[in-house]
Amino acid sequence: MTKSRNLTFALIVIAFAQLMVVLDTTIVNVALPSVQRALKFNSTDLEWVVNGYSLAFGGLLLLGGRAGDIFGRRRMFIAGVLLFAAGSFAGGFAVTSTWLVVARVIQGAGGAIVAPTALSLIAETFAEGPARNRALGIYAGAAGGGGAVGLILGGLIVNYLSWRWVLFVNVPIAAALAIAAPRVLAASEGRSGRLDLPGAASVTAGMTLIVYGLSRVATHSWSDNTTVATLGAGVALLVLFVLIELRSKQPLMPLALFNNRNRSGAFALRMLAGSTTLAVLFFLTQIVQNVLGYSPLQAGFAFLPLGIGVVVTAQVTSRLIGRIGPRVPITLGALIIAGGLLWLSRITEHATYVVDILPALVVLSIGLGLVFFPTTVVAISGAVRNEAGLASAVLNVSQQLGGSIGLAVLGTVAANVTKSQLLNVRPTHTIINEALITGFTSAFEIGVVVALAGFVLAFLVIRVAAPRPGAQALPEAA
To answer: Domain total for the chain?
Structure first.
């Protein structure tokens, strides 16, 4: 087998792993209304089907990236896909809401190993420059493709089988990846070191408590004793995490990683983009199925332009970034995301797909495609070999943490606005739909502000310019 062919098969396995992890998020989103009815979730607890996965994924990504560096990336890649399969298999048999959330946490833990090892395998396998940019473009396309496939597949499965099969479908994919990986991925040697378990425990627990506290605000006031205690404990644990990292000889996340302004800006921008992306999928799923009356299959097709747009934009951006650099696409992308969210904030209970939803999804897909790929390039560009897993892990942590916090905050805004709309009125089907839409559109308005903050951040912080002719890598600014 030639070297070129080896690289091609290696990239296929890595891309399919990323597709599986992303597919899981969107395929479950389409199934949420069915899951809610089957397992008796209330509207606020339903977020934990998404957040249980996201928090485990984001909270353990640093540990997953570090484990790949220490124990070998191929070995940890295989372990991650098998753990992901175990969580998917368990979730498919869930008979209570708690059972499902726990299974989603296991899935998230598996994804936390797969994602950073997959991205660092690209950094290790492909030389920095055009070859790596092409590989990253395919990787980003797989992420967008996973979203698109998940939407359609989720609709088909829920419509014709059962919501349980949106989890079972991951099992054969993961099994195939585990079998193929030893045959096409080069074995990477680990290095001496130890895992920072106290750091991993403190950051994961801290993020979980903060998101839980923010979610409680939807059903309790900010002055509620449990809410205040939960948020306070979460902040304290994150402070403890920083102290642990400062004192540890082998920290989970060396704070020196943030000395590079471009990389730190990329992390912050992925957090802001993640905070709006997850919320948009969650809210629009509720709108099109519960308010507009779409079937799960119709909902899947309704979201398809979002996934396709991200794939196409990522591919175009991967070809342009070597000429114009990442700053222009990132800055423009944040502004376009704000425009898409503003469009969504104007929908009503009488919205039509072609006029009110489709254009917004197309605009959002372009903005997200312009942000996701260049921030990936900036985050791992210039990283030494032993930092590749860490940099890719922190990038994913930023997106997942942003998604969980964004969904908790925007979900709280939506729930409180809806609740206020229903005070002192006789709830009819029409009035309830109007209140729900008002809550969701208020959350989208907050999302516009978040996206504009991303535009300002990109404009002020990102300083990577277009490479000089003949240059193989994007320059790094300290």
So the answer is: 2
